[in-house]
Design a protein that fits this description.
Elements (H helix, E strand, L loop, with lengths): L4 E6 L9 H17 L4 E3 L17 H17 L6 E10 L2 E10 L2 E7 L22 E5 L5 E5 L2 E5 L6 E6 L9 H7 L4 E6 L7 H15 L3 E6 L16 E4 L2 E5 L8 E6 H10 L10 E5 L22 H26 L3 E5 L4 H17 L6 E5 L7 H14 L2 E4 L3 H11 L8 H21 L2 E5 L3 H6 L12 E2 L6 H14 L3 H12 L18 H5 L2 H13 L4 H11 L6 H17 L1 H4 L28 H8 L2
Parallel strand pairs: 1-2, 2-3, 5-7, 8-15, 9-10, 10-11, 16-17, 16-19, 17-18, 19-20
Antiparallel strand pairs: 1-14, 3-4, 4-5, 6-7, 8-9, 11-12, 12-13
Protein name: Glutamine-dependent NAD(+) synthetase
GO biological process, one term: NAD+ biosynthetic process
Function: Catalyzes the ATP-dependent amidation of deamido-NAD to form NAD. Uses L-glutamine as a nitrogen source.
Length: about 625
């Protein structure tokens, strides 16, 4: 339960139709199995105490009475279990039979929730046996004397984890145009459970998966779907036990059909509430009845996948699609800006590194969209004190392969004159030595842009901006920054995608060598002709920083939670001390460097995380990061 995680389960017992005693024993065994495995919220299928397929046996008083007896026994059994359980049964009230979800915890039936929408088409004839619970709001007294509330609009709130708020719908309720889960979520429920008996026909599983995952996305919630399976009557249809656990559009766990597999995962209810808080159109209207339940406070061992590369799709097909889409967004942004300004030329500083390479590729695509000659791209290489033959040669090859106009301006003489003018000793390789070169390059690009009726295309990426790894008014500044919302981990894949699809052997080999070159600003002299200044040695691995950035900004996680997830994501690659070292560095730099982000040039947003001061990150430059650093220091 720490950090807002709660382990949940969807379980499908192999029932015997109408054998309530047998089914009750199975349900109790699964309750224990699930809680022994750490699950705190356990959902069973619709009408599982009797079996869904009893048909006209539901008219038998004996069956209905036996179902209640088993419910009382199940509730009593739950007394020693740490969890809340959702169990389906038929229940009669005032001569009407209802398809109910009983909510059980700590020896009590907390409430019963009736099904609202009864399918009465094709193979379904529920209205033959059951009444809709749409307007039902009452109390019933069980045989053991316990008084139980009955209502469709109930939210079950955990005292120890207040953000865990659970509501119920049953099977067909979800398949309707206006599912009850909508009003449940709009009343504050963060988790929806669905007790279902969905039969299997060709193609239905795909639709069902999309329906459940889509509802979890639309409602920004966790969704547990437990369906009837093997054991139900196969007189006319087959039930596959297709169980699903989804969160905010993601399928966290899915059973193998026809196996009655119990599935587990963990919901992050903190993340759910953070997402809702961010979405100001998600307005909560509290008109539900509430019931509280208790859980023991324990750490939740995470089984759900923690993605070490949240900006990069793991599947190659998805990744290629993402890369093409990002390149198009970047190019379209630049296309519009070039059209609006009537600039004849795009001016780019080409270092032979990743970021400037991507900016050049984007500019080429924008020019293709405009039908403009690549010769109107002024690609400027500016060798300095740290330039190596490798990066210089790659820069030259890129420019030639792409048909841009090659311009070379050696900055060493100009920088030495500048150092003389300000009294800087060139042998002192301090921040002035480095930033003087960066600002000289920016001045050259700006002046060429003025001279050629052009605009300077910015090359810095999202990861650098998050860390403030840019020279203020140096490479920090441009007239349109095409990479400003592209994280470094994605930059690599964009360049690789271009290499794989460009159709030119020389361009492909050059791009692959750019990818193989250590990331460096090349502001310090090389050692034996090799790059001496490696960015990731100085600020830490970009894959770590991109992970930190995503989980801090996109998910709103506190440092301790980011650290916990990073240890899982990078287990076996980085030790805990290494991760913590760079986490501290990330938070320190993130807060200290906001002043650079507060005056960023325009640039297109390509993903869900961005730091534009006009859009996604409206943060004061003088905000204090103390409470974040204090938490990091305690880790």
């Amino acid at each position: 339960m720490k950090d807002g995680y709660i382990k949940v389960a969807a379980a499908t017992p192999k029932v015997k139709v109408a054998d309530t005693v047998y089914n009750g024993q199975l349900i109790k065994a699964l309750m224990k199995e699930c809680t022994d495995n750490g699950a705190k919220v356990v959902v069973f299928p619709e009408l599982c105490i009797t079996g869904y397929t009893c048909q006209d046996l539901f008219w038998q008083d004996k069956l209905i009475a036996a179902a209640e007896d088993e419910l009382i026994g199940i509730a009593d059994y739950s007394r020693s279990l740490d969890g809340i359980f959702f169990i389906g049964l038929p229940y009669e009230i005032n001569g009407m039979l209802y398809n109910m979800a009983a909510v059980v915890s700590r020896g009590e039936v907390l409430a019963m929730v009736p099904k609202t929408f009864l399918p009465n088409y094709n193979e379904f004839y529920e209205a033959r046996h059951f009444a809709s619970g749409e307007n039902l709001s009452t109390y019933v007294t069980l045989k053991n004397g316990q008084q139980v509330s009955v209502d469709t609009d109930f939210i079950f709130s955990c005292k120890q984890l207040p953000k865990l708020k659970i509501a119920v719908e049953l099977c067909e309720d979800l398949w309707t145009p206006n599912p009850p889960s909508i009003r449940h979520a709009m009343s504050g429920a963060t988790v929806i459970v669905n007790l279902s008996a969905s039969d299997e026909v060709t193609g239905k599983a795909i639709y069902r998966r999309e329906l459940v995952s889509g509802q979890s996305a639309r409602l920004i919630c966790g969704y547990i779907y437990a369906s009837a399976g093997d054991g139900e009557s196969t007189q006319d249809v087959v039930y596959s036990g297709h169980n699903l656990i989804c969160e905010n559009g993601n399928v966290l766990a899915e059973s193998k059909r026809f196996t009655n597999e119990t599935i587990y995962s963990e919901f992050d209810v903190e993340r759910i509430e953070t997402e809702r808080r961010r979405m100001t159109t998600f307005v909560v209207e509290d008109d539900h009845r509430w019931a509280e339940f208790d859980l023991e406070v324990k750490d939740t061992t995470l089984s759900r996948y923690v993605n070490p590369a949240p900006f990069v799709p793991a599947d190659k097909t998805d990744r290629d699609r993402r890369c093409d889409e990002v390149l198009m967004i970047q190019a379209m942004g630049l296309k519009k800006r070039l059209e609006h300004t009537n600039c004849k030329t795009a001016v780019i500083g080409i270092s032979g590194g990743l970021d400037s390479t991507l900016a050049l590729l984007v500019t080429v695509r924008a020019f293709d969209l405009l039908g403009k000659d690549h010769k109107d791209i002024a690609a400027v290489t500016m060798p300095g004190f740290g330039t190596t033959d490798r990066t210089y040669d790659n820069a030259v090859n890129l420019i030639k392969c792409l048909g841009a106009t090659f311009i070379e301006v050696d900055i060493k003489d100009a920088v030495n004159i500048h150092f003389r003018d300000i009294g800087q000793d060139p042998s002192v390789h301090d921040v002035t030595y480095e930033n003087g070169q960066a600002r000289e390059r920016t001045q050259i690009l700006m002046d060429i842009a003025n001279k050629e009726n052009g605009m300077v295309i910015g090359t810095g990426d999202l990861s650098e901006l998050a860390l403030g790894w840019a020279t203020y008014n140096g490479d920090h500044m441009s007239m349109y920054a095409v990479n400003a919302s592209v994280p470094k981990t994605l930059v690599r894949h964009l360049v690789k995608y271009y290499a794989d699809t460009c159709g030119s052997d020389l361009l492909e080999s050059t791009l692959l060598d750019v990818l193989d070159t250590p990331v460096s600003p090349e502001l310090l002299p090389p050692e034996n002709g090799k790059i001496s200044q490696k960015t990731e040695d100085l600020v830490g691995p970009y894959e770590l920083h991109d992970f930190f950035l995503y989980n801090m900004l996109r998910c709103g996680y506190a440092p301790a939670k980011v650290y916990r997830l990073a240890r899982i994501a990078f287990e076996g690659k980085y030790d805990d001390g290494f991760i913590l070292k760079w986490l501290k560095n990330f938070y320190r730099r993130f807060f200290a460097q906001q002043f650079k982000r507060s005056c960023l040039p325009d640039g297109p947003k390509v993903g869900t995380v961005a730091v534009s001061p006009r859009g996604d990150l409206r943060m004061p430059s003088d905000a204090c990061g103390r409470i974040w650093m204090d938490e990091v220091d305690k880790l």
